Amino acid sequence: MKKLLCTSIASLALITAAQAFNMPYFTGYTGILGDITPYSESPYITMDSEVFFAGQLDFSGRFLLKGEFYLKTDNLLEDSIFIDSGTNNANFRIEEVSAMYTASSASVTHYFNAFLGNFEPIGSDIFLQRHFGIQPITSYITQSWKGLNGSSIYNFYGAGISYTARLESPIAIGIYSYLNAQEEDDGTTTNVFNMDGRFACVFPNFSLDASGGIGLPIGTTVQTTDDAFLVVSTINIHAGMNMFVGNRYSTCFFMQTGFDDITLSKTEGTEYNTLKFEDWYILLEPRIMFSQFELNISIFNIPADSLSNMIYLKGLYSSSVTNVLGVNAAFVTDKLYLGNTNFTFGIHGTLSVTNPLEGFSGEASAFGEFLLSTYITGFLSTFQEGLFDLNVTPFVTMPVFGGELTTAVSVQIFEFINACASENHDFSSSAIFTLGFKTKI
Length: 441
Prior knowledge:
The relative contact order is 0.10. This protein is mainly β.
């Protein structure tokens, strides 16, 4: 009888749990993007592509499973699109796999997460969208096709847990603990244990999402005394912030800033205890609203890791680029119609310079001398050496087949002029044609 009673109770508990998670609700999002660029040899064009898929299973609002996956191909036309070369021409990446449990009390909603990948990165507005239900606020020029997270101030990829408290007032506080790895100068990797804190709020005319934390490289610890288990020799600091002042329908201001891995150490060296300019992400963007269009003016310095994911700026990226400093003006209107179809048209104009202040370590006493020698006396030679870029990118976004179609043509003006003036008219890397599609499933 006792065994029967225990079995009955266990069965009832399992049935109750199964009923609680019965018939999960699935939502998904997917997108594909293709880039076509001129090439100097047959077949005279290259074609790369990006594909992402994001989906989530919602079990009665209590338990949520999320997955996001990304695929990027090399040039599909290198040999022939119809020939199997026997080698892989694509890279697959798990962007996020996470599980979230939600519990509510009188004045606080609690979110417990376990995750693998790039989870709620700072710089993306995905955290504000998930917890406050806001519309997207990030800049047009930082748009990405890498998934729902989009581009971020600094990239991290790790495994860990987090806790977020969403207060009754429009405030959220989060704590993250995760393990990831960093690549050393000698090519080896070191495991890093991280602890981050997060604060976010959304008010009628002000939104803020700020995060910061420390990383402890496990591979750089040493034992110096017999009674010491662990001695930390270096500490990594990282931080980031999104700030939006105003609202989407009137003149407003958007700002992003942050950095990754300032290394603190008692060891003397230029790589320690300084913020290098090429690692400092900053974007300042006033948005001026007119009756028929908006004008966004952006001043930015973007490190290469973040730059490579942005569809309107990735033409500036190459393996030799550490960061790009520039200014962008974007004219955008969503008040155009093709028949009964409303669509968005815009054009970006971007003037930028690659690797500015290269080697500058952040010491204020050296800034004046560095600025004088690099920019004032060497401005003309810098311009003639082709370090400046002028990009013009018109784009159109419109609803198609229940999704959103985006087309854009990015032309590097100086490269195009040089190609026209040259004898062989090599237009390689002077233009990129982009075609992308996103849809909910």
